[in-house]
């Protein structure tokens, strides 16, 4: 494989395309649940959210370069496939595209895009190393994706419930993710809950958040008029993967952290789908 091909593939990997698709989908969920139906507006919202998600992934790897050399040496910056300057340039270009796309939808969406751009920088630069406050910030940013889509719709208030769901699942996953990165985080002085209080406390905190989500997942169907289709998707696509991932973490928090946090991407997507179809 020649150098140009490796660079292109490394740049694609740096974006984390799967994450970008979920972020764009979250914006579409907020827009559609709120009654939005304009295909052009939906496309622009998807593009804006996905490009800002790519910026968040890139700037995270930019500031995590030394930590990733320990935790994730296969990442493009850690391997040297992409230089930090190339990565930063790519991130800024994609963020500019995302902000421009958002402004073309509305000034409110543009303002939220600019706020997300700045908060993602602050998170990667400083807040991530603070531990729990950083976990809360990145969870709020994830919930903001749905609000961002919702404010472009006729009924933005309908995006509030799925945004609360997104906040909760991301917070639980972030707490579990501290187990995955515990070695490099400890060496870098990052104050995650796993580093400060140990793996068992981290799994207990993550479990408390995620089990609370499992407990309340049927409530929209029972009290808010959501359909049995929502309930089926919530039970099979959200609750079961969460319970399975927690079982993995409880058996061996550190060794199973990578697998468990990947499984926890399933309920994020399936939960949004449940709100969209239910």
TrEMBL record:
Topology with regard to the membrane?
Multi-pass membrane protein
Key word Heme present in the record? no
Task: State if Nucleotide-binding is listed as a keyword.
Answer: no
Q: Which UniProt keywords apply?
A: Membrane, Transmembrane, Transmembrane helix
Q: Which Pfam families match?
A: UbiA (PF01040)
Q: Which residues cross the membrane?
A: 12-34, 40-59, 105-125, 132-151, 205-224, 230-250, 262-277
- Localization terms from the record: Cell membrane
Quote the CDD domains the UniProt record gives. Answer: PT_UbiA_DGGGPS
Listed under GO cellular component are: plasma membrane
Molecular function as annotated in GO: transferase activity, transferring alkyl or aryl (other than methyl) groups
So which domain of life are we looking at?
Archaea
| PANTHER family per record | CHLOROPHYLL SYNTHASE, CHLOROPHYLL SYNTHASE, CHLOROPLASTIC
Q: What is this protein called?
A: Geranylgeranylglycerol-phosphate geranylgeranyltransferase
Natural source organism: Thermofilum adornatum
- The organism's lineage? Archaea, Thermoproteota, Thermoprotei, Thermofilales, Thermofilaceae
């Amino acid at each position: 494989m020649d150098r140009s091909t490796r660079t292109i593939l490394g740049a694609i990997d740096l974006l984390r395309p799967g994450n970008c698709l979920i972020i764009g989908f979250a914006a579409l969920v907020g827009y559609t649940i709120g009654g939005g139906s304009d295909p052009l507006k939906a496309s622009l919202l998807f593009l804006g959210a996905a490009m800002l998600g790519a910026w968040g992934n890139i700037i995270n790897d930019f500031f995590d370069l030394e930590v990733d050399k320990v935790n994730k040496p296969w990442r493009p910056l850690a391997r040297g496939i992409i230089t930090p300057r190339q990565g930063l340039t790519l991130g800024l270009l994609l963020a500019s595209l995302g902000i421009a796309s958002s402004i073309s939808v509305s000034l409110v969406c543009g303002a939220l895009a600019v706020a997300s751009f700045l908060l993602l920088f602050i998170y990667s630069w400083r807040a991530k190393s603070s531990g729990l406050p950083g976990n809360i910030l990145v969870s709020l940013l994830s919930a903001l994706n749905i609000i961002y889509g919702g404010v472009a719709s006729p009924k933005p208030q309908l995006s509030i419930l799925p945004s609360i769901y997104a906040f909760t699942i991301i917070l639980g996953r972030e707490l579990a993710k501290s187990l995955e990165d515990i070695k490099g985080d400890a060496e870098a002085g990052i104050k995650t809950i796993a580093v400060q209080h140990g793996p068992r406390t981290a799994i207990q905190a993550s479990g408390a958040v995620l089990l609370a989500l499992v407990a309340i997942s049927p409530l929209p169907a029972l009290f808010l008029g959501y359909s049995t289709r929502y309930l089926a998707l919530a039970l099979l696509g959200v609750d079961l993967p969460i319970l399975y991932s927690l079982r993995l973490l409880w058996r061996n928090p550190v060794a199973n952290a990578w697998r468990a946090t990947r499984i926890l991407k399933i309920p994020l997507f399936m939960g949004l789908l449940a709100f969209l179809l239910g």
